[in-house]
Amino acid sequence: MTAILEARMLGMTYGRRRALTECSVTIPPGRMVGLVGPNGAGKSTLLKLACGVLTPTSGSISVLGRTPGTGPEQLARVGFLAQDAPVYANLSVGDHLRLGARLNPGWGQGFVERRIAALELDPRQKAGKLSGGQRAQLALAVAAGKRPELLILDEPVASLDPLARRAFLEHLTQSATENGTRVILSSHLISDLERFCDYLIVLVASRVRLAGNVDQIIAAHHRIVCTRRDPGALPAGLEVVSAEHAEHQSTFVVRSDGPLPPGDWVTQPLSMEDLVLAYMGTAESGIRSATQGDGGAR
Description:
This protein has helices at 43-51, 72-77, 93-103, 109-118, 132-145, 162-179, 190-196, 214-220, 272-280, 282-285; strands at residues 5-14, 17-27, 32-36, 58-63, 78-81, 150-154, 182-186, 199-204, 207-213, 221-227, 238-245, 249-256, 265-268.
């Protein structure tokens, strides 16, 4: 089956600034993908490359088996929603639906009308008069109404309050289920990704630090607490992701391809947020991070 996205040594520069560096990742079909990383890590650049808005300066990228942005057919297969959830302030909700129907040959009018009714949006209301959460929901309804095979969302809930975020994610889940759409969702809110995604990509300092199936990633990583020691004193086969030291104690997040070997330490569970923060911290700590499989980066 065709990968959702496949990047090989993908690079992107803006003048002298490098936004992506040797990015190699393959997202298997059928995944709901979470993309996370600090500001400036390259998340938006990767998503714009996937949409065909940008052209890479090195390497290659394919989406659903084809080069992004190459012709009307490929454009119809991919939907994109930017962080500011853009709508036209002077157009009504109904105008947005009519515009969507005119521009998209696969438009799902019945689906969008049901979503607008469920959201209790007045079709006569100007988009500029809607609340931030309502504008985001309208933008999502229009993007999903395109009925794309892949819907790419670049931090669409960043400015929403918790209730609006929950409503947005519920709408997103329903849209994906009803239309059979795969999703790549970029967000700083890891708790939202935990509820929605089964595949995770972590970008740090323009590079893919981690990519793979969430369950496999969590199973392959461990937090261990032991008497203070250098990372090099740990058993062979453990790759250190992060290390913290107190006066008499060390705490490591490690990756192990097999069962964790016995040792004089206490093992503690890791959440997705713990793991993401450990990898994001590698940019400052200088520890070289690991990458995880399921067709992901190596």
